């Protein structure tokens, strides 16, 4: 029964992908769903992309290990969604660009900010890879597949439905995944595990007071969660690309706030499930196995299939969002930069054949999706890989991106200098400390980038008036969106 439910779910994802294909008639529809998602669709897809395998399987695992304080990982992600939505989402939506690097170019007026696409692509690619690897934990429990086969199976399904209809397919599947996750976690797993563990009194008696403390995981760890994940959410291409899909600034703001509140509750629920599991099954070897083991051993057959489908949904929603983000950055930012390095020129966009342009976007999704599957099959230490990507993203790009959004005096020279210094400082500190999981690299990168950004902005000429005029027109919503550039082929 459980296997049947999962197979039906996977088949439904492919069907929704095919349905979304009909809507993806041009690049705007394919990459950002035509910028016309309403409140429900936007909230669903935003909540789906930020609540992935780390928040679901990982969140329950942290609750199992640290009790209620295991919630802080997902709470920090929720805080990022709330801050982005309340402070920046409306402005970002009005810019009518397609990538974070596009925002940097528009704000500072220099093509060199396209180099930020390399950092962003590394981040989104590793996010795709880690989400793909996460399928193995569920498929292994259900089907008995080995790790490689599980990665390939789940990865090919995500690539298939993502490539077919782009953001429309991803949005439609995200809605289904959002519903399944809500039912699986809030309606089934949380009440069943708490009831079987004897409720609050029974759990407290079995696990003790420490597991009920908010700070058990450690103050330093909690602070680092907020620095890395909250700030990472503020500038991630996968998150911004969802903001670009909103049909209005109001939808971007309040739909995002709703998604943030949902994520907050999701984090608390996951920690409570893990806490109850630690009382019920104290001998689970790996915290990553807690979610699947509890679903199989606590819930009746059939209901456990829905809960396992919820975990797969969480992983697939993040993987698909990161995949299309990687493809978008690769086509619009990285390939033009490579073309420039090799002395190639980029032709103007031929808008007379939008179907050909959609096929080009689809090809990028397929190729990068296959690359991510290969990497996922080969790599072992996914936590370290994702930590490196997040640290470089925050250390190198946070200051120039947010600085450009909030400080009129910020200059392009300062943005470039901050990106270079922040990235180098972050990577260098990793080598000096000798531990990529340490807290110091991201802090050193952030402080270095901030000092260089402020100082350079004050000692260089302000951004040209004509550049700021275009920027202000976009921010006020009085200008049309950029066309999607087509990179020149590389000989």
TrEMBL record:
What is the protein's membrane topology class? Answer: Multi-pass membrane protein
Q: Write out the GO MF terms.
A: transmembrane transporter activity
Q: Where is it localised?
A: Membrane
Superkingdom of this protein's organism: Bacteria
Q: Any signal peptide, and if so, which residues? A: none
Gene3D superfamilies membership: Sodium/glucose cotransporter (1.20.1730.10)
Record keyword Transport present: yes
What keywords appear on the UniProt entry?
Answer: Membrane, Transmembrane, Transmembrane helix, Transport
Q: Which residues cross the membrane?
A: 6-21, 41-64, 70-92, 113-143, 149-168, 175-194, 214-236, 257-281, 301-325, 363-382, 388-407, 414-436, 442-461
- One GO cellular component term noted in the UniProt record for this chain: plasma membrane
Similarity comment: family membership: Belongs to the sodium:solute symporter (SSF) (TC 2.A.21) family.
Query: What is the official name of this protein in its record?
Result: Sodium/solute symporter
């Amino acid at each position: 029964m459980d296997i049947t439910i999962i197979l039906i779910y996977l088949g439904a994802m492919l069907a929704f992908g095919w349905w979304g294909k009909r809507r993806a008639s041009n690049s705007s529809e394919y990459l950002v769903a035509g910028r016309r998602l309403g409140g429900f669709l936007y909230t669903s897809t935003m909540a789906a992309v930020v609540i992935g395998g780390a928040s679901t399987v990982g969140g329950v695992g942290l609750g199992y290990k640290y009790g209620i304080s295991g919630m802080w990982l997902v709470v920090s992600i929720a805080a990022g969604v709330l801050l982005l939505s309340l402070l920046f989402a409306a402005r970002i939506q009005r810019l009518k660009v397609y990538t974070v690097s596009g925002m940097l170019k528009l704000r500072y007026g220099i093509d060199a900010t396209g180099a930020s696409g390399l950092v962003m692509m590394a981040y989104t690619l590793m996010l795709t890879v880690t989400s793909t690897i996460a399928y193995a934990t569920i498929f292994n429990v259900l089907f008995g597949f080995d790790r490689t086969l599980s990665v390939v199976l789940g990865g090919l399904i995500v690539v298939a439905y993502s490539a077919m209809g782009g953001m429309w397919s991803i949005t439609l599947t995200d809605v289904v995944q959002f519903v399944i996750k809500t039912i699986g976690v809030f309606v089934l797993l949380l009440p069943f595990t708490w009831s079987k563990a004897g409720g609050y009194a029974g759990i407290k008696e079995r696990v003790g007071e420490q597991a009920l403390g908010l700070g058990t995981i450690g103050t330093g760890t909690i602070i680092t969660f907020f620095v890395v994940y909250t700030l990472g959410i503020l500038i991630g291409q996968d998150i911004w690309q969802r903001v670009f899909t909103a049909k209005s600034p109001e939808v971007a703001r309040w739909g995002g706030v709703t998604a943030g509140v949902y994520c907050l509750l999701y984090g608390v629920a996951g920690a409570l499930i893990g806490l109850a599991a630690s009382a019920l099954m104290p001998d689970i070897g790996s915290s990553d196995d807690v979610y699947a083991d509890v679903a199989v051993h606590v819930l009746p057959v059939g209901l456990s299939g829905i809960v396992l489908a919820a975990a797969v949904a969480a992983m697939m929603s993040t993987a698909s969002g990161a995949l299309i983000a990687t493809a978008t950055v690769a086509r619009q930012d990285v390939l033009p930069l490579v073309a420039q390095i090799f002395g190639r020129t980029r032709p103007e966009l031929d808008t007379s054949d939008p179907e050909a342009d959609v096929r080009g976007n689809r090809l990028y999704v397929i190729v990068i999706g296959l690359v991510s599957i290969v990497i996922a099959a080969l790599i072992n230490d996914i936590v370290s890989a994702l930590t490196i990507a997040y640290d470089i993203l925050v250390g190198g790009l946070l200051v120039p991106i947010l600085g450009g959004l909030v400080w009129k005096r910020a200059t392009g020279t300062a943005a470039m200098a901050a990106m270079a210094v922040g990235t180098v400082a972050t990577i260098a500190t990793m080598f000096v400390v000798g531990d990529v999981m340490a807290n110091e690299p991201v802090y050193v990168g952030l402080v270095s980038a901030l000092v260089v950004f402020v100082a350079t902005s004050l000692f260089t000429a302000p951004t040209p008036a004509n550049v700021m005029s275009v920027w202000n027109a976009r921010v006020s919503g009085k200008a049309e969106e950029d066309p999607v550039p087509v990179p020149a082929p590389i000989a």
